[in-house]
Design goal:
single chain, mainly alpha, about 55% helix
Length: about 120
């Protein structure tokens, strides 16, 4: 969050995350008050707004911005989709192990080829 507004990639990623998960900040919307650029004028990023109006992010309250933090939202998404996440991880691990096995077979074939000569 400290790089928000300074690094375009971080800014875009956080904005997209907050829009997709309907969340604001890490724990809640008050986390943005600790960031220098939002501290001075009591605002939050516009991606926190429930309804996109011109002043929705000024003097934020649970009525105008998402009150729930993104950590809680991502945690809930992970719990809901744990089977998919685990299946992808196991699939990647399977292909990694398969690659190791094939590399060992190739090494064995090369070694036995040199012994015959």
């Amino acid at each position: 969050m400290n790089k928000y507004g300074k690094d375009p990639a971080v800014t875009e990623a956080l904005d997209e995350l907050q829009r997709d998960f309907n969340c604001c900040g890490a724990i809640n919307y008050t986390d943005w008050a600790n960031i220098e650029q939002f501290q001075a004028n009591d605002t939050v990023p516009r991606s926190c707004c429930r309804v996109n109006t011109t002043t929705c992010n000024v003097h934020p309250s649970p009525a105008t911005v998402y009150a729930k933090g993104c950590v809680q939202s991502i945690e809930g998404w992970m719990k809901k989709n744990i089977l998919v996440v685990a299946a992808v991880a196991l699939g990647i691990a399977f292909f990694e192990i398969l690659g190791i096995i094939f590399a060992c077979c190739l090494m064995r074939g090369i070694r036995s080829g040199y012994e015959v000569m």
